[in-house]
Amino acid sequence: MPGRRALVQSQILTAAADLFRARGYRAATLDELAKTLRMSKATLYGYFRSKEEILAAIFHRTMSLFEEGISAIRRGSATPDEQIRRVIRHHVRAVVAERSFLTVFFSEEANLPAHLARHITARKARYDRTVLGIVQAGRRAGVIATSHPRLLVFALLGMSNWVYRWYNPRGVWDADAIADGLIALAERGYASARRSDLTPTRLARLSRDIRALHTLLGSKRPGRRRP
Amino acid sequence: MPGRRALVQSQILTAAADLFRARGYRAATLDELAKTLRMSKATLYGYFRSKEEILAAIFHRTMSLFEEGISAIRRGSATPDEQIRRVIRHHVRAVVAERSFLTVFFSEEANLPAHLARHITARKARYDRTVLGIVQAGRRAGVIATSHPRLLVFALLGMSNWVYRWYNPRGVWDADAIADGLIALAERGYASARRSDLTPTRLARLSRDIRALHTLLGSKRPGRRRP
């Protein structure tokens, strides 16, 4: 259970993410942040030594959110295609639940100090490789079809992460409805109706042929297994 | 043909977008920009009165790039599904060709003055509605299948725009290869192999059953049309 210090730290980060998202990191000041939190600046400095340290903590917390998500998904015994569904769902839920964190994460990278930017880049690359590993396991299992696994990873994460730009908390869709829609699109594509319209037609034609044969033969339907 | 003034303005915007992308808009200074351009600050001020005016021009130019693209796509006589392919391709090409502009556009919105932010929001909403119109025309024509047209629009623009975050100019994929991959995924989905692998197999099995029955019966294949 987190102690009081960790709780206050978390409150500060949430308020800071909201402020940075609304005003931009560089434009926002620690005076504004302290005022929002009804906290003296001296108290605020007791938790974070600088605005940059707060930005770094926002980046670390956001990366951890994704890393913990993918670890839980990998630990389970779900098939690769189910794991990919869960990755999409985890991203959409994270973006919806922590929109300010994600907006800062996606917008303020240029303001990270160089050593931290390199560290975050490495963690992101490791994360992408883990998702790529699931896609490749899915290809081997024959449940994921793609000739460009890396492009598939970026496409899936892109459509899921992009939710941070258009999600409306007062809208009709919650995170799971959005995730369901994205999963359906990613799995079947938007041109699926045309294809699945043809297959029943061809099946119906074959069934008619078989019925005609039965009539000609005056027999019952033959068994499916042959020697 | 653009005059010299327009050419210099365009050079300034390109250099500014590169600088803002690398350093962040707020951190970048007009001194740095003038130095990069080998131009005096006085000359620079002859083209743009402030850093904010440069940011505004970057946003306008980026919006115009997308608006001109969609106008050209709408003007043609392509079917709605082909129009959607062209929208995806236009986004990927724009992101790859103008990565700095797009990065600033996607990251620095919080730094726009309020009246300009509202103006850009309205133009973006109009753009999204135009793409939505194509999707809805595609549904009516039976070539686009989706129960959530708006979600489909955001998913397609999201996977295409996200390229700005991972595109590597030294990588093996050019814009058109990326667009081809995204179009294939968006149209058919990554689970297509399972379906398309199974369906032909099942259809072929049925055909074999029918042929075997014909052989047993000693008859020709019955005609397809019956009263």
- Determine the N-to-C terminus distance of chain A: 65 Å
Strand content of chain A: under 5%
Helicity range of the residues of chain A? over 70%
Largest sheet of chain A: none
Tell me the count of domains of chain A.
2
* Shape, principal axes of CA atoms of chain A: elongated
Low-pLDDT runs of 5+ residues of chain A are 193-197, 223-227
- Give Rg of chain A in angstroms: 25 Å
Query: What's the CATH topology name of the largest domain in chain A?
Result: Tetracycline Repressor, domain 2
User: What is the overall pLDDT average of chain A?
Assistant: 90
Number of strands of chain A: 0
CATH class group of the largest domain in chain A: Mainly Alpha
CATH second-level architecture of the largest domain in chain A? Orthogonal Bundle
CATH homologous superfamily caption of the largest domain in chain A: Tetracycline Repressor, domain 2
Structural class of chain A: mainly alpha
Largest interface summary: A-B, 67 and 68 residues
Q: Tell me the series of helices and strands of chain A, N- to C-terminal.
A: HHHHHHHHHHH
